[in-house]
Amino acid sequence: MWSRLSTLWRALRGRPEFEDTLADEIRDHIDRYVADLIAAGASPAAARRQARIEFGNVDNVKADCRDARGLRVFDEAHQHLRYALRLLWKAPVFTATSVATLAVCFGACLTIFAVVDAILLRPLPFPNADQLVSIYNTYPRAGVPDDGCSITNYYERRGRLSAFSGLAAYRDGAVIVGQTGQTEREFITRVSPEFFDTLGTSPLVGRAFTDAEMTYETANSAIVSYEYWQEHFGGAASVLGRSIRIDGSPATIVGVLPRSFRFLSSRSRIYLPLASGADERTPDMRHSGNSTRMIARLAAGASVALAQAQIDAHNAVVERTDRQAKLIADAGFRSLVVSLHGSHVAAVRPMLLLVQAGVLFLLVIGGVNVTNLLLIRATARLKEFAVRQALGAARRHIVAEVAAETALLTLIGGIAGVALGAAGIRLLVTLGSSRLPLGAHLGFDVRLAVAAIAAALATGLAMALPIAWYSVRNYSSSALHAQARGTTASRSAQRLRHAFLITQIALSFVLLAGAGLLATSLMNLSRVAPGFQSAHVLTGQVSLPWARYAKIADRLVFIDRMMDSLHSQPGVVAAGVSTNIPLSGNSNRSAATVKGFVLPPGESIRANYAYAVAGDYFAALRVPIVSGRALTGDDARLGNHVSVVDEDFARRYWPAGNAIGQKLFLGSEEGPDTEAYTVVGVVGAVKQAALSEQDALGAVYYPYAERFDNALYVVTKTSQEPDAFARTLQRVVRGLDPELPVNNIRSMDTRIADSLITRRSPAVLAMLYALIALLLTAIGSYGVLGYAVVQRRREIALRMALGARPDQVRRQFVALAGRLIAGGSIVGIAGAWMTGRAMQALLFQVPPLPASIVVVTAAVLATVCLAACMLPSWRAARIAPSSALAAE
Amino acid sequence: MGKTVDVLPGTLDMLILKAVSLRPLHGYGVLLRIKQISGDALDIPQGSLYPALYRLETQGLIAAEWGQSENGRRAKYYTVTASGHRRLRQETDGWNRLTAAIGAALNTTPDEV
After folding, report:
1. In a 10 Å sphere around its CB, with 0-12 CB exposed, 13-18 middle and 19+ buried, how is residue A295 labelled?
2. CB contact under 8 A, A21 and B52
3. Backbone phi, then psi, for A494, in 5-degree steps?
4. How many interface pairs between A and B have CB atoms less than 8 angstroms apart?
5. Are A584 and A762 spatial neighbours (Cβ–Cβ below 8 Å)?
6. Fewest beta carbons within 10 Å, which of A126, A389, A817, B102?
7. What residues of A are in the B interface, CB distance below 8 Å?
């Protein structure tokens, strides 16, 4: 087999040489024979004639020789392709339209598929990545679907469950790295010792962390990424043992990670030990998530179900002695084991699939469009085919010719599509695909190109099939008649064309309506009142390193000085700090217990958002004070045990409206009165996690104090453009403490826009698809109507000759267009309704198919299609009666 | 020239292999050689010779090489490859068995039944 292939390859490669050799050889043969015949006594002329006769037709012999080499198939293919190329060249408008249609559709498909492939399909870049799982605690009835895990969970579980071959905990964070004056805020991940091992990787040089490093006293080592090593140490081998300054304290580098290592979508370049104190590992802290997360690797042969069963059983055992067992159980507590990859991309998965489905729709529309155009061409050539078949052309040849034409079209379209797709992918990368989980994996590669070309050829085949079938089947004597028009053959072709156009209109309808649904949803969302005023508000993050700000007094002094300094800047209207801000992406919830509140039987405690604020936080965001007063800088400075709640919280606990003066406790149980926070005010509710947020969980605001996070958001309301204030903010903070960088600086308007990105991008893409689909449908309508006019030219001319008025003729074609559009729209409405239902989960306050969308979609489609049909109808009306005689 | 017979279908390849196996030959030489070794009894249709040569070459049973012919012209010379030799032996054995069997069958007298 191989030797044959290689001979064939040699023969193909050396094709011109092969032909020369063959000709030489045959000439030589005849010459020798002639010479022998002359030697035997024949006259040269007679010898030459006899030699020719005996040898037979040289061309036939040559063809047989080529056949023997297996070259004939290629010869024919070559011939067909050249013929197809000539035909396409002679019809530039058709060719350009088809190639452009296919290129745009393939390009769009490829771009989106690349995203789907990078995010959903390709396994995570770890060995046996399908064994990796994430385990998280969920309290659905308390309004906390995902609370990660606790340090206690980690110490209780590790090494005890046979379903896992490795189990690790990690927590993302940020630290200040570097010397005074050149500090940077770096994202870091704190990890337990087995973290890298669980992922199936190990440091390139050095070692992973050890158990001994997991306490606050001993956690002074660090592992850096390959890039960090190259950038800051020039890749020097002596990096181990070197020290980097983290939050003002030295940490020794003990390892460097492999070049390609990246944990999911993490931006961390430095890994630190996940340190904890003995108090954090006690059973009492089992349900204190604190942003810690758990990953694990399933043991060989263990399934997710087995792992889930073991986790459930283990939870049941440890929960038996839990002080708050009932409370936890009432909240619907469970620890869920899910695929690491699946859970990481779960949020974007439906949107990505939707966008992919949309682009596939577009491809079908484009394919139907080109098929229809091809069909019109095939109809025009039907007579030629019939004549050729009658003269003995094999069906195989005609099919091959049609196939060659479509193959050529799709190949050119496919290659152009790959180029477009590659450009689209590059565009997406620069536009910030890295904001999508695993989006950084996006890239154009050979694999994608090959898949795209293969898909293009498959599409070509799918398009060639109906045409070839049609061309061969309609070979009949009727097609041979000079007046093939009006015969059954052309009527079936017309039905097919109309069916294709109706399909195209219906699919475009669905796409348009889908885009409309997404746009409506986006519009509904942007009309949602967030509960605060985003205009002219700049926000940034500052982390106060524990080493120098361990005491609350030091932190409060810093905050006070920062507030004073900010207020003295020109243009500052109000400034405040908070441990969290709306739409920050961090929607951690915690518990608050209201003094004297008795949980109705069967109900669970509810989590709420908790903010610790200082300065004029409410004024900066213009959160309205409903009753009582706001928290002030004094509350934080003096350590007042007061709090402010939002309307949602107040409504749940004090429906009578008597919130002011009530007492509540931080945490899920009541404490001594000295720890109670007295409610001094009620403020308006804000959208914390997303504008689409529906469950009013409520929020409690505390004065910033000892027990709260040291990472602070600075919120400033200015009279100038907020982005212009960024530099001032950084300068002010550096002026107070040269080691403190401010990052994550974004205006509140930007944060709102960013929070909608997973909704805006699909809506924008869908609009784009809808626009292309509209254009394609216009082309399709024009093509079909235009052909109908050409085909019935004689009939129209005859009717005009007999007295039909031009507007009657025009009306006839407009009516045909109207029927096709109506047919397509009716099918389209059904499709759009089903699509709308399928999309429900992705829409915000949009019914499956609002009447307004149906009306607008139908109106737009009808206008565009009718406009496209106008030109041919117009032309029909201008056919001169005399042309009836001239045409044939 | 004595009486000639047509080659049996399928035997041309065998004859070409045999002819070429004796010494390398160019196309016309193959024709002459088959005539010669068959005692002028076999007549090869000239037109079918070249497709057969190309088929055998494609199958890897013979190999072609350019060389100088006796009259000083460039000619394509065919030689038998190792697998060609093997094929020739198989075909010869098969042919001998076939002719022996057919001969035996055709020479059977009534007494022997």
Report:
1. buried
2. no
3. -65, -45
4. 60
5. no
6. B102
7. 3-4, 7-8, 11, 21-22, 24-26, 28-29, 32-33, 54-57, 60-61, 64-65, 67-70
**Best mutation site among B12, B54, B71 for testing chain A: the one with the most A CBs within 10 Å?**
B54
Encode A258-323 in three state secondary structure.
Answer: CCCCCCCCCCCCEEEECCCCHHHHCHHHCCCCCCCEEEEEECCCCCHHHHHHHHHHHHHHHHCCCC
Q: How far is A416 from chain B (nearest CA, A)?
A: 38
Residue type, A67: D
Query: Which residues does residue A577 pair with via DSSP β-bridges, in sequence order?
Result: A614, A714
DSSP track, chain B: ----EEPPTT-HHHHHHHHHHHS-EEHHHHHHHHHHHTTT-EE--HHHHHHHHHHHHHTTSEEEEEEE-TTS-EEEEEEE-HHHHHHHHHHHHHHHHHHHHHHHHHT--GGG-
Cα–Cα distance measured from residue A395 to residue A403, given in angstroms and rounded to the nearest whole number: 12
**d(C-alpha A193, C-alpha A281), whole Å:** 16
pTM of the shown model: 0.75
CB atoms within 10 A of CB A691: 20
For A362, residues 6+ apart whose C-beta sits below 8 A from its C-beta are A105, A108, A109, A511, A769, A772, A773
Q: What angle do CA A760, A140, A602 make, to 5 degrees?
A: 140
For residue A255 the two structure tokens come to 């390892």
DSSP, collapsed to helix, strand or coil, labels residue A570 as coil
Overall residue count recorded for chain B in this entry = 113
> Which ipTM was obtained for this model?
0.86
Using an 8 Å Cβ cutoff, are A766 and A518 in contact? yes
Instruction: Give the span between the Cα atoms of A741 and A745, in whole angstroms.
Output: 11
Strand A592-594 versus strand A642-646 pairing type: unpaired
Q: Mean pLDDT for each consecutive 10-residue tract of chain A (888 residues)? A: 59 71 85 88 88 84 79 74 85 87 91 90 91 94 89 94 96 85 85 96 94 93 94 89 89 93 90 93 86 94 95 93 85 94 89 90 90 81 75 74 82 90 87 74 83 84 79 57 51 82 93 93 91 94 86 92 93 94 83 86 85 93 94 87 94 90 88 90 92 86 87 92 89 90 90 86 88 90 84 82 85 88 93 91 88 92 90 82 62
Beta-strand relationship, A184-191 and A270-273: parallel
**Chain A CB within 8 Å of residue B10 CB:** no
Contact A26 B57 (CB under 8 A): no
Determine, for residues A56 and B28 on separate chains, whether the beta-carbon distance falls below 8 Å: no
Angstrom CA distances, A332 to A598, A698, B98, stand at 19, 20, 88
> A64 vs B51: CB contact, 8 Å cut-off?
yes
The partner residue sitting opposite B46, judged by closest CB among A21, A25, A55, is A55
- Taking the CA atoms of A206, A211, A217 and A223 in sequence, report the sign of the dihedral they define: positive
The answer to whether residue B46 neighbours chain A at the CB level (below 8 Å) is yes
Between helix A806-839 and helix A757-791 the angle, nearest 10°, is 150
Instruction: Mutate one of A18, A64, A66 to test the B interface: name it (highest B CB count within 10 A).
Output: A64
Instruction: Report whether A418 contacts A99 (CB < 8 A).
Output: no
Answer yes or no: are the C-beta atoms of A383 and A452 closer than 8 Å.
no
Query: Using the beta-carbon criterion (under 8 Å), do A28 and B28 form an inter-chain contact?
Result: yes
What are the strands, taking DSSP E only, across A463-620?
537-543, 572-578, 592-594, 609-615
A142, exposed or middle or buried, with CB in 10 Å at 0-12, 13-18, 19+? buried
B75: which strand partners?
Answer: B67
Ordered DSSP codes for A181-208: TS-EEEEEEEE-TTHHHHHT---SEE--
> Which amino acid is located at B67 in the chain?
G
Chain A positions touching B60 (Cβ under 8 A) are 3-4, 7
